[in-house]
Amino acid sequence: xxxxxxxxxxxxxxxxxxxxxxxxxxxxxxxxxxxxxxxxxxxxxxxxxxxxxxxxxxxxxxxxxxxxxxxxxxxxxxxxxxxxxxxxxxxxxxxxxxxxxxxxxxxxxxxxx
Amino acid sequence: xxxxxxxxxxxxxxxxxxxxxxxxxxxxxxxxxxxxxxxxxxxxxxxxxxxxxxxxxxxxxxxxxxxxxxxxxxxxxxxxxxxxxxxxxxxxxxxxxxxxxxxxxxxx
Lengths: 113, 108
Fold this sequence. Notes:
The complex is a heterodimer.
Chain A: E1 5-7, E2 10-13, E3 19-24, E4 31-38, E5 42-50, E6 53-57, E7 64-68, E8 74-78, E9 87-94, E10 102-104, E11 108-112
Parallel strand pairs in A: 2-11
Antiparallel strand pairs in A: 1-3, 3-8, 4-5, 4-9, 5-6, 7-8, 9-10, 9-11
Chain B: E1 4-5, E2 9-13, E3 18-24, E4 32-37, E5 44-49, E6 53-57, E7 60-65, E8 70-75, E9 84-92, E10 95-98, E11 102-107
Parallel strand pairs in B: 2-11
Antiparallel strand pairs in B: 1-3, 3-8, 4-5, 4-9, 6-7, 7-8, 9-10, 9-11
């Protein structure tokens, strides 16, 4: 079965711009969570969606937002980009938040210049 | 990571055994996960423990003690390809909360 698909793989943006990242979960998975990975901060939780509803949100400013569609695909948006937003953004889908684990996509590498 | 501690780096020899420890905050606990991440790749799921005890999967085993807020990942018969970062992650209200990761270097 297809894995978690994230697009685009790489992105370069300028400070002040906004960006939208996409994540298609494994078929049948309704939970999608997003993480930011940087060398200094590790993997930080951004938010989680389940059946089109945001279930939880991490400690990120309001410039970071997301949504989930009826087909479980999810998007995250970052507005007014800052240099510090440069990171690998990973999404993970889960069937049951438990024993089957969370399956990660390959990520979107965002560089803000 | 938030209240999740694991060693930053470890080095071991090919063919040997290595144990990576992880301590975590017990409140809101909903399972302990271990992930492996090779440089430039996505994290891959290794194991999940929700009850006390040892779970074995081939060369990898994971242990959990809920009362102590403690887990470890045991890797046996180390291979060069096991060189990677290993993350413990606590399941809970916020999906996964990750430790900062342990970079394991396997030497010949």
